[in-house]
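Changelog note: in this version the structure field was regenerated for every chain. One regenerated record is shown below for reference.
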Amino acid sequence: NAVIRWLAESGISIAGTRALRVRGRTTGAMRSVVVNVLRVDGVDYLVSPRGNTQWARNARVAGQIELGPRWRRTPVPLTEVPDEVKPALLKRYLERWYWEVKGHIGGLTPQSGPAELRSAAPGIPVFALAR
């Protein structure tokens, strides 16, 4: 949504939103999207609830994103989380943002069990941010 993007790019977070920029893997142009940053045990994670989106593909190739408002974007290296680690992170993400992503995360809910989360994990990119 344009309003949420404008707010995030202005440094105003709504329920954990942040502005992300990543270099396009084919054009080299910078691409922008709004994401939710999940913090677990002092580590920040990005989840792509819609699956293998363009921003996730670009981040995977670039190995780095820019995070933050227009005037203070910070380059942040990232690494993709292995599938076996994702279920616990997906559970935490759903507990916090299910209301926002419920139509986009493959039928998962905060009540989804471990087997369901493990089954969905390969189709949902999750990245750990190095800070």
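Spot check on this record: Helices lie at 2-9, 54-62, 86-101, 114-120. The chain has a mean pLDDT of 87.
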